Amino acid sequence: MQGYEQDITRELWVWQQEMQSSPGFFNRLSKSWQNKVNSWIPEKVHQVVTTTIKQMIRAVLFGAKYTSAPPLQSESFWAREMAVKERIEFYQKTASVEGAVTGAGGLLLGLADFPILLGLKLKLLFDIASLYGFDVKDYKERVYILHILELAFSSQEHRNQVYQKMVNWKEKAALLPDDIHQFDWRRFQQEYRDYLDLAKLAQLIPIIGAPVGLVVNYRLVRKLGVTAMNAYRMRILP
User: Fold this and answer.
1) Which residue from 23, 110, 131, 191 could staple onto 156, CB 3.0 to 4.6 Å apart?
2) Residue 57 maps to a domain
3) Which superkingdom heads the taxonomic lineage of this protein's source (predicted)?
4) Number of domains in the chain
5) Which of 79, 172, 89, 177 is nearest to 133 (CA)?
6) 29 is a domain residue
């Protein structure tokens, strides 16, 4: 057990350095282009997309808290980690099947993949939080879940900012407003959408949509799971 925690502590340190690294040349170039494209989109469109994503996530956040398991108690850190890894694998397989089905269905089903996959990601995060012993009925734990989602699917520049919000979370959470409406939904939806655009657009292409959806969804859920594990390790390990 002690050896396992030492290995995980080293793994966590490497991940933390990655979260704080400076944006590379191609990352800055890609983000600059995405910002330019966003500037061409009418403000009303931005408002509609932001409101849609906000309401979608709020529905999942406030619904999943009633369907999620209670916080896992009296289990060792190793046992929690093994249970978390099993949940990640389960959601990877579920998301890959969903991606293959919607990818094979053409444009309309391909578009349906966005809310379905987002719901699976959020449910996975709720399960992981509970397995690590955190109560998702607490509003501030649900804000932490949103930050994990941001951390996994954002540009490196925004990732740096989000990571700083999550360090010493107990102190940061005490300063949070009580209204989730004050969360920066506009920035959230732009970062999330920009990160997924290239990967998910190929899923809309006939013939290749199914295999692309299968592989992309599998990898996206894997990335989210690894991010979540390290985000909670950061709060648990000394």
Assistant:
1) 23
2) yes
3) Bacteria
4) 1
5) 79
6) no
